[in-house]
Design brief:
Blueprint lengths: L2 E5 L3 E2 L5 E8 L9 E7 L6 E7 L4 E3 L7 E6 L4 E6 L8 E7 L8 E5 L2
Length: 114
């Protein structure tokens, strides 16, 4: 069974870049037809789909975040990462990684504050 675990800084200053990593265990991130996704939930709001990277390395982003987002992967470590530039307090949220079968990580809280 695939398990996912998010990691990264819990506090980021405005205008900085947020970088989060999802470590996957139980299967390779290159497994055929799997997609690996980042989702976030700001306080008091619903879930927001941010983007995904495919088993083949292809990426797709939410149009609203595309200009500030990038998702990369390290197949040697079985990890994929989210980079979000120019963060503002509106980017404060719990960030989740998930796979295309419905497995999610536990989430990591990110606060944006100077």
């Amino acid at each position: 069974q695939v398990q996912l675990q998010e990691s990264g800084p819990g506090l980021v200053k405005p205008s900085q870049t947020l970088s989060l990593t999802c470590t996957v265990s139980g299967g390779p991130i290159t497994a055929d037809y799997y997609y690996w996704t980042w989702i976030r939930q700001p306080p008091g709001k619903g879930l927001e789909w941010m983007g995904r990277i495919g088993y083949d390395g292809s990426t797709y982003y939410s149009p609203s975040l595309k200009s500030r987002s990038s998702i990369s992967r390290d197949t040697s470590k079985n990890q994929f990462s989210l980079h979000l530039t120019s963060v503002t307090p509106e980017d404060m949220a719990v960030y989740y990684c998930a796979d295309s079968t419905g497995e999610w990580g536990q989430g990591t809280q990110v606060t944006v504050s100077s």
